[in-house]
Write a structure and sequence with these properties.
- The protein has nine helices and eight strands.
- The protein is α/β, with parallel strands linked by helices.
- The protein has a domain of 156 residues: Rossmann fold, CATH 3.40.50.300.
- It has a five-stranded parallel beta sheet with strand order 2-3-1-4-8. A three-stranded antiparallel beta sheet has the order 6-5-7.
- A hairpin with a 5-residue loop joins strand 5 and strand 6.
- Helix 2 crosses helix 3, helix 4 runs parallel beside helix 5 and helix 6 packs across helix 7.
- Zinc ion binds next to loops.
- The site of zinc ion (ZN) has 8 residues, from loops.
Length: 223
C-alpha cells in the first residue's frame, strides 16, 4: 500500500492554502484539516472553544497554542486522518510545530512534506479584502478574480450564504500579516532543519499552484 501523504501547507493569510487543500481533498481524498474553518464552525455552534477563540480571530490575532494543540490532537485521532491529511492553518507557531511532532511521534506518523506558498503582501491584501466565503461549505470566491455566477450565492453548494469574514478587512489583514511575519514564518526554518520544506510561488493561477504542489510531493502522491 502506498504510504499515506501527510502534508502541511504554510503561507500567509490569503496565500491560497484553503483553495489548494480543497483540491487535494477532491483529487486525492486527503482530509482537509483547516483550523480556521474548525474555529469558525465552533463559533457558529457556540462551543466554549468558539467563544474563547472569537475575540482573537476577529482581532486578527493568533488563538493561544494550548487551545489549538488540543483541537488538532482530537482531529488527528479521527479515523479519516489515518490515511493521510492536509493541514491548512496549523502549525502557526514553533510551539505548535513541536507539539505536532510529539503527537506524530507517538503514533509513528511521518510528515511527507511542508509546502510553503509565497505571495507578496500587497497581493495578499487585494485577495483578502475581495474575498467572499461560504458560511455553509467554506468555499471561497473573490469579487473580481473568481466571482460566483450569482452574487451572494455559492457555486459549490448552492447556499445563499456568501459573506465577508469579520477579519477580512484591510486593517485586520495587516495585523494577520504581522502575526505571520513574527510567528508563523518561524516554522519554515523549523521544518527546513528536518529537510521537509518545498517553497513555491503562490502567485500563479490555482491550477499552476496545484500542479507545482503535485510535482513537489511527486513520488509520494497517489495518482
Ligand atoms: P487565513 O489563513 O486566511 O488567515 P484562517 O481561516 O486559517 O485564515 O484563520 C483565521 C484565524 O483563525 C487566524 O487569524 C487565527 O485567529 C485563528 N487560527 C487559525 N488557525 C490557528 C492556529 N493554528 N493558531 C492560532 N490561531 C489560529
Ligand atoms: Zn457553499
Amino acid at each position: 500500500m502506498a504510504k499515506p501523504l501527510n502534508l502541511i501547507l504554510v503561507g500567509a493569510p490569503g496565500s491560497g492554502k484553503g483553495t489548494q487543500a480543497q483540491r487535494l481533498l477532491e483529487q486525492h481524498g486527503l482530509p482537509q484539516i483547516s483550523t480556521g474553518d474548525m474555529l469558525r464552525q465552533a463559533q457558529r455552534e457556540g462551543t466554549a472553544l468558539g467563544l474563547e477563540a472569537k475575540g482573537y480571530m476577529n482581532a486578527g490575532q493568533l488563538v493561544p497554542d494550548a487551545l489549538m494543540v488540543n483541537l488538532i490532537r482530537e482531529r488527528l485521532a479521527q479515523p479519516d486522518a489515518q490515511k493521510g491529511f492536509v493541514l491548512d492553518g496549523f502549525p502557526r507557531t514553533v510551539a505548535q510545530a513541536e507539539a505536532l511532532d510529539g503527537m506524530l511521534r507517538t503514533t509513528g506518523t511521518e510528515l511527507s512534506a511542508v509546502v510553503v506558498m509565497d505571495v507578496p503582501d500587497e497581493a495578499i491584501v487585494e485577495r483578502i479584502t475581495g474575498r467572499r466565503s461560504c458560511k455553509a461549505c467554506s468555499a471561497v470566491f473573490h469579487v473580481r478574480f473568481s466571482p460566483p455566477k450569482q452574487a451572494g450565492v455559492c457555486d459549490r453548494c448552492g447556499a445563499s450564504a456568501l459573506y465577508q469574514r469579520e477579519d477580512d478587512t484591510e486593517d485586520k489583514v495587516r495585523v494577520r500579516l504581522k502575526a505571520f511575519a513574527d510567528q508563523t514564518s518561524q516554522v519554515i526554518p523549523y521544518y527546513q532543519r528536518q529537510g521537509l520544506v518545498t517553497r513555491l510561488n503562490g502567485l500563479g493561477t490555482p491550477e499552476d499552484v496545484y500542479a507545482a504542489i503535485v510535482k513537489a510531493v511527486g513520488a509520494g502522491a497517489k495518482a
